[in-house]
Amino acid sequence: MPINAGFEYARAEEKYFHAQSDKERLVALEEMLRTAPAHKGSERFRGDIRLKIKKLKESLVKAKKSGKSNKKGIKKEDLQVVLIGLTNSGKSSILKALTNANPKIASYGFATTEPEVGTLNYANCNIQIVDLPPIASEYFEHGIVNSADTLLIVIEKIHELEEITKLIRNKKAKQIIVFNKIDSYDVTAKRKITETLKTKKYNFVLTSTKTNEGIEELKEKIFKSFNIIRIYTRQPGKKEDTVPVIMSPNSTLEQVAEKILHGYSKKIKYAKVWGPSSKFNGQKIGQKHVVKDRDIIEFYTD
Fold it and tell me: Counting beta carbons within 10 angstroms of the beta carbon of residue 281, is it exposed (0 to 12), middle (13 to 18) or buried (19 or more)?
């Protein structure tokens, strides 16, 4: 650290030393340059930072041209939720509270520079949750937002909604407003926030990752945002699989088989069903049978 450097520079330098990718290092270096002392004695020091920035930018451009990338590749799962919001809204804390992920959580802004992914297991379904960098960040990825099934819009103030929603191009995804850090409000303020969101007819939850307020309600709302049915399969004489096959409503037995394995439906002679779509337990069914949520299927092949 240079002489007479302030707290902001020290914080940026710490981010640089803990960076895990070139993009994170570049962000930290640019912050270091912006906050470094600007006087004659620091000219050489600032020049060194500029040189590092130049080399990192050249390296990133070269990697982009060669097709290499530091970005995490994200394969979209059957059920995908994307967290979006402004910097310091608490998105990473929400991801940690909902899933098995352990994202970087920091008190300074723009700590998330690439998508973080976790899995929420609810009602036997594995739901992929993606935390994106802040919506104002250069690393924010509209492509992931555009393909999401459900969007969790994380806010701390009502007025943030307009700023965020006007940037969302995906109009098909379900939206859940997550009013976070609600532990910092008193009862009267909570009531006013609730009334305002109800008046605007938002689907919303008031949450706090410090007290866990609203977290279970949020999980339920996430699950209910998907228009799906769960089909359980089992081998004859054995217990059904604990993880269901996720299907759209009005799917047929043939579509379930193809979802399990492409071409599998051609090998099936018949099937038996237990559950809501059956007239009686163990009913013998054919390929065109329409399945329902929580059906249990046994396949019989030639």
Answer: exposed
Assess whether 139 and 205 both reside in one domain: yes
Position 104 scores a pLDDT of: 62
For the segment 14-24, what is each residue's pLDDT rounded down to a tens digit?
778 777 777 88
Same domain for 208 and 100, yes or no, is yes
pTM of the predicted model as reported, rounded to 2 decimal places: 0.72
Query: Which of the residues in the chain have pLDDT under 50?
Result: 1-3, 67-70, 107-109
Residues 33 and 50 sit within 8 Å (Cβ to Cβ)? yes
Q: So what's the pLDDT on residue 163?
A: 85
Residue 302 confidence (pLDDT): 74
Q: What is the domain extent for residue 248?
A: 229-301
The DSSP line for the chain is --TT--HHHHHHHHHHHH--SHHHHHHHHHHHHHHS--SGGGHHHHHHHHHHHHHHHHHHHHHHHTT---SPP----SSEEEEEE-TTSSHHHHHHHHSS------SSTT---S-EEEEEEETTEEEEEEEPPPTTSTT--HHHHHH-SEEEEEESSTTHHHHHHTT----SSEEEEEE--GGGS-HHHHHHHHHHHHHTT--EEE--TTT-TTHHHHHHHHHHTS--EEEEEE-TTSPPPSSPEEE-TT-BHHHHHHHHSTTGGGGEEEEEEESTT-SSTTEEE-TTPBP-TT-EEEEEE-
Domain end call among 166, 195, 224: 224
Q: Given this model, what pLDDT does residue 59 score? A: 81
**Partner residues linked to 130 by β-bridges:** 82, 117
